[in-house]
Amino acid sequence: MTEQTNHPIRYSRLGYAHLQVTDLDVSAAFYEESVGLQRAASPDGEVWLRCSDKPYDLILTKGTDAGLKAVGFELESDAELDKAFAHVEGLGFAPQMRDAQANAQRMVARSFTFANPDTGLTVDFFVGQAVASEPYRHTVAKIARLGHVVLNCKSYADAHKFWVEQLGFAISDHVPGRIAFLRAWPNVLHHTFALLEGPDDGLNHFNFMVTDIDDVGQAMNRMKKANVPIVFGPGRHLPSTSIFIYFLDPDGMTTEYSFGMEEIAEVGGREPRELEPKPEVLDTWGSIPDPRFGKGGKIVSVHG
């Protein structure tokens, strides 16, 4: 298979993930103290946590069901946001431009929001996010960035159509009909999003990229001492070459640290690879996922 040429939107990066949790205080403490994010000033009803120079990378709100409420992507420019709005509107997804007050609350210049028609997942596109008033401080891990979000997909075909064919995410590697590792094109990271075929729609996991392999090893021991379940790894992914460890948050949602990731240039980058459906694709070191891996977290629809 050759790289698809349909890229109607130019992305800059994965901007944030928005989780719904059942106990806001417990989850906020976990992500701050065990994972190493920094708590930031935030609107009433939300907890903002950061691992970069931005005001937030992870948003938490309280609800009955734990799950993924929204994902936000920063686009390359103001003009790109307008082009993306017209494109999404043309697809019939009824995007809504946020007003000045909503943008100010989110600390972005402009943004719009719409829903995946198949799952109800909220997708936010934005530009001009503010810089935090103080640098992010490393504590228990040297986190570099929010790395990626991965979804379980009841209909892989529908998910592939939405993210790849309609929104123009680029395939880096895939197991046809089962798994796709996607770049927010032309962002060079091997994947900022991924799709896995599964029995239900939901959150598989989300990732923080760390800057040192020691962060992975230290996390293994830190989580064990705190009785945090480790559900996969340490290991190394075949597709991205990343070294990883997965653990569960207080609601049973799967969180990942990873170190090292292949980068694929916009011009002259390699073609996507078609991989075999075998366990070594997920871990060349041979570890076996715990049955709880990638199972905790619904898609929490806010559109309706």
What do these coordinates show?
This protein is of the alpha/beta class. The protein is built from five helices and 18 strands. The chain has helices at 24-35, 78-90, 100-106, 156-166, 213-225, and strands spanning 11-21, 38-40, 46-50, 58-62, 67-75, 96-97, 110-115, 122-127, 143-153, 170-175, 179-183, 193-197, 202-210, 230-236, 243-248, 254-259, 273-274, 298-299. The strands form two sheets. Strands 1, 2, 3, 4, 5, 6, 7, 8 and 18 form a nine-stranded mixed beta sheet that branches. The protein has a nine-stranded mixed beta sheet with strand order 14-15-16-13-9-12-11-10-17, with helices on one face. The chain is globular.
Q: How would the global form be characterised?
A: globular
Give the CATH level 1 class of the largest domain.
Alpha Beta
The secondary-structure class comes to alpha/beta
Proportion of β residues? 25-35%
| Fourth-tier CATH superfamily name of the largest domain | 2,3-Dihydroxybiphenyl 1,2-Dioxygenase, domain 1
- Give the oligomer, counting copies of the same chain as homo and different chains as hetero: single chain
Distance between the termini: 37 Å
| Total number of helices | 5
- What is the arithmetic mean of pLDDT? 95
If you compute it from the alpha carbons, what radius of gyration comes out, rounded to the nearest whole angstrom? 18 Å
Identify the CATH architecture of the largest domain. Roll
- Helical content stands at 10-25%
Low-pLDDT regions: none
State the CATH topology of the largest domain: 2,3-Dihydroxybiphenyl 1,2-Dioxygenase, domain 1
Largest sheet: 9 strands, mixed
What's the SSE pattern? EHEEEEHEHEEEHEEEEHEEEEE
Task: Please give the number of β-strands.
Answer: 18
- When the domains are counted, the total is 2
